[in-house]
Design brief:
Length: 169
């Protein structure tokens, strides 16, 4: 049985955990040397029932803003999840994987969102990581590289969702 409070705590922790670029840039001048690493933040994480497309649980990164923007994922998360589930079902039927393989699929939704998703091995639960694809000049965040988002998803499924391996709805 899934414990809602445990899953919500885990999703909140994961969505608020920054990812650091593996590339380090040095800024060297006459007085000092600064090492700079880019920090990336996800927008949201969702657990989806792969058979029905229903959202089982989700977490959205809190930005501290008091107004709701129409482009924020909480307004379109159910639609995103249905689209991702449908695309995932089409793509996953074309491939046969080993039972414990974690195969990550990536999708661009509306040219504004990057979504990486993978099925928890042996289960009916699809884990989706969502980040902004295009960042305009007036936003403070940086594009989350799709490859890094996929790597983070794969590592987190192995490390944090192990107890859900084989879970059937």
């Amino acid at each position: 049985m899934l414990k809602a409070s445990s899953i919500n705590k885990l999703l909140n922790k994961l969505v608020n955990e920054p990812a650091y670029s593996p590339i380090i840039s040095k800024n060297v001048n006459a007085t000092n040397t600064k090492i700079k690493r880019t920090v990336y933040h996800m927008k949201s994480i969702a657990l989806i029932d792969s058979t029905s497309g229903n959202i089982l649980a989700y977490s959205i990164k809190k930005t501290g803003a008091t107004t709701v923007n129409d482009n924020e994922p909480e307004l379109s998360l159910p639609l995103m999840c249905l689209l991702v589930r449908d695309k995932y079902m089409e793509d996953s039927h074309s491939k046969k994987n080993e039972e414990n393989d974690i195969v990550v699929y990536t999708y661009d939704l509306d040219e504004e969102w990057n979504v990486c998703c993978a099925l928890i091995p042996g289960s009916d639960i699809l884990v989706c990581y969502i980040s902004r694809a295009n960042v305009t000049a007036n936003t403070a965040s940086v594009n989350f590289p799709v490859g890094l988002l996929c790597l983070k998803l794969k590592v987190n499924i192995k490390n944090n969702f192990k107890s859900l391996y084989g879970y059937k709805m």
